[in-house]
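Teaching assistant here, posting this on the class forum so everyone can see the example we discussed in section. The complex has two components, and the goal was to see what a joint structure prediction looks like when all of them are supplied at once.
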Amino acid sequence: MRNGRLADASGFGGRPAASSGFEEFYRQHYPHVVRLAQSVLGDFHAAQDVAQEVFLAAHGRFAGDVERAPGWVRVAAVHASLNVIRGERRRERRQRLSAAEEAVSGPEDVVVDREARAELRRALSRLPARSAAVLVLRHGGMSYGEIAQAVGVKVGQVGTMLRRAESALCQEMKHGSCQ
Amino acid sequence: MGHASDGTLRRLVDEPFAIADSTFDHIARCARCRARGEAMAHTASVAARRLSAPQLVPDVDRAWSDFERRVGEPDRGVASRRPARASWPPRRLAGLSLRGGVLAASVAVVVAGSAAGATLSGVFAPTRVAPVAINAQDLRAVAGLMSLGDTGSPGGFPTASGSGSLPFGSLRWTSSGSARSVGSAAAAQAISGVRVVLPARLPAGVGAATTFVVQPRVTATVTFDAAAGKLAGASVVVHAGPAVFVGYGSRSGGSDIPAMGVLVTPRPTASSAGATIGQIERFLMSRPGIPPELAQEIRLLGNASTVLPIPAPKGMSATSVRVDGWPGVLMADPSGVMSGVVWEDGSGLVHMVAGLLGQKSVLDVAGQLR
């Protein structure tokens, strides 16, 4: 029975095992957290990696009380994903500076990210962190009220932040015919 | 009252009932606010499209097992260790038309060829499968891109060997012959060289194997010419097959449509030269008639040098499964009448089992093909 375990499933002398309450929370929210991460990263596997890390962190924080965890894992997933793409951006910049000028096409090119996805990642990485988070959370299905609570702003500010983020995103993307 | 703020107009797009009546009335009367609101709605829809991701369904059971394992590790460093992959991407997927058992393989070849051509500058050798949601229009677009027409021929080509012109170059394909029926699985194995394993236990309602079809290996080469601009001189070579399809009749008889089909083929491979991944991908996916959604699906497959796209009718469900330990995708139509599973094993063989069967039956058959 998947959810029929005793709530106190912790092991002696080791890290506490995940409780059935946390398991239920995990199973309910994991797909959505993956999807949020994927909308930033554009990569299903990487999104699952991020989601897993987020839930591991959430387990340390909310293992005994998951009521506050749903909003936290979503925001954490978005921020973690944005950190990933910002790290990539820094890495790319370093590589550009150090790389030889002539780029020879070869198998290495396969790992060059696909253009559309890379463009989105670049655009998101250039947005202010909170704006990017609002943008991803909203398009990930969260309400204005939930977003306000999650990122610590007033509900009335969410629309403005969202509008600016969308506008900036479209301007950053070459193929976006926004206006 | 004054004009509505940007934030209010933006919220109107998503949560209209949260807007005060007085503000709502003003916007309804104010051409300027309406115009601003419409522009914002447009921008929002563009952003939504950009941020949209395919409907992938993670394997929660597997992810949870991995999670439990990692929680139990005494010195787990969250930031220092990457979790195991939580299985490959199951996507919205699809039942495969059984009648098109062999045809499905040919479609896979065509789409795989497209994806390979679209993404490779080096070698395409997929190690896992991933569904690409596809509809009739997409199929026509892909066939049109490759100038294949509606051939319905195994391998996607009208003849065993030949050549043709593409709007951006030339296409040449060769094989040792056309698809042909043989008398037994042993004959199919002997001719194709592909190890054919059939299930010992058949699901209820499925009769004996009645059809054995062998599709010889096909090699297709696309060479880009000046019409492809910067890609001129580049080429992509796709190898597919040989494939063996075994069709099973209905135990009650009376239908030409197989009740179940089993397909096995080495994974298609490809190599390209003379162009970078970005150049070829942008070029092929921007061809007139290629639906943007299809292009997006293919782009989102991830590293396509290791992913074999499996065409999947839109609107069908997909879940990730393990077949004898290898990741696969289980497809089912919403009514539960038809389902299929596709996976690639460790030896590089791609298998498909599909039929007018429930998901459990399909998986049971798949599990026997080791």
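For the discussion questions: Residues 101-368 of chain B form one domain. Confidence is low (pLDDT under 50) at residues 75-124, 149-155 of chain B. Think about how each of these relates to the inputs above.
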